[in-house]
Amino acid sequence: MRWNSPGTLVGGAAIVAAAVTLTVVAWPGATTPDRGAPAGSATTPPAAARSEASSARSDTRPAAPTPSGGYALSKAPRAVPSVRQFEAARGPGWRPSGGSAVVIAKNSGKLADEGQLLAKELKIDYRGAVAAEAGDIELALESGKQAGPESYTLTTRDGRVRIAGPDEAGVFYGTRTLKQSVRADGAIPEGVVKDRPDRPQRGFNLDMARKYYTPGWIENRLREMADLKLNQLGLHFSDDQGFRIASDTHPRIVSEQHLTTAEVRRIIALAGQLHIDVVPEIDSPGHLGAVLAAYPELQLRDVNGKISRGSIDISKPAAAKLIDELLREYDTLFPGPYWNIGADEYQALVVANPEASFPQLAAAARKKYGADAKIQDLATGWMNDRAATVRPKKKDVQAWNDGFFAGGVVKADQNLQVLYWTGKEIGARPPLDYLREGRPVVNLNDEYLYYVLGQPNDFVYPTGRRIYEQWTPLVLRGTEPVPARYSKQILGARFAVWGDIASAQTQDQVAAGIRLPLAALSQKVWNPVKPGLTWAQFEALANKVDG
Q1: Has this prediction a pTM greater than 0.90?
Q2: Which of 74, 160, 378, 438 has the least CB density, counted as fewest CB within 10 Å?
């Protein structure tokens, strides 16, 4: 997770018939060829298709009248991330005017929040569940006509816009495309957008344990994420340096600077409105220093009595009781579908001879799992047991990759999702080891996606340009992609901020530093083809549509 430190692609094809052009960016499609190529490369489409795709992405203003009084074919709307399919047409497009309003289609009342937000953002009226008129935007729920719950179709025709999808999330993403196009060019072009994400998990991971962030700062990140169609916010709120959310069951563990439960509920409510799942993390059996400060009797000690920093003694029944009580408490606070149970960097397993250094853990492993069991088996069993604690509420449980050990008596639960961040830690293995086991993986590659405050241990602040030009979801470790045949197992990616040296940046500096990396990440997890814009063009567009 982080280091212990001082602190079927149709590539851009164009079909012209009468007044309509179809520019296919990638739809609906299985694994695209470019995902298996080296980072930064892509399958090259025919020259004519490249030209059409490029122009569709770089010049997307509404078609202007030709001297004959007609309209030129439109270009795809400009947005971050870029849309995956656009059917061009001849027409004026749509731009907000004094008579424009957002309306909700029949049987689509659940879209009221999305409609009201869009109306506020575009500074036009909201009229609710009434028939659409000239100049209006209509939002509609339509089942069975789209390519997944986060997909949408945005149609601009005859002076109106209609955004339809099978679920609220997809329609919401359609409103983000409309909003960004208006910001970029003042209008949305005539034509039809058909769009959906390439990966189901797309997000941002925040270490708020080692560095405190205000509720307002987190809420502002949620709004930025929503515009980028990101759908996960991971909150790492417990570590050696702090425990940052109020607790009713164990109030002694809570840091002076923390979020109240009311503030957390407000964050979760806003995230829900923006179709973002909040993923809580209480890491164990390591990274528990703040908790153990209040419960020193559960602190892990080696054979000489030396404290193992941040590690809980998993041979003691009271250790499991304490952590399970916390998991159940916060499982009630966080209603989303995911939990991260951590499991990384347990210090008992980073020494040369764990069994000799921690004989009490070795004895507990043999007692529970048999004569051949070792401490790694006890740790794996601990991880499985913590997953079982939160799974009754139908959670998808995640853990860091270096908590998954090979060759032991006890096997990690096959349903656990692997958060792959490193191949450098003790116990960590190359990505293919996890993929060959059939495990689902989320990409948090520490080479590209780790923003570590103070840049310790050779970390360098990642740039949006490097992510945009080199990284793809298949690049799980270092700079080399895994084979494309494993693509479906890679559920997505999260960009992570870690507070190793918390004072190295203010929270405003962090916000500024991660803005473009998040935009670049959003492009790569939404649209699987190699981007048509240069980095300079993408950066200019991201700056224009931001805010």
Answers
A1: no
A2: 438
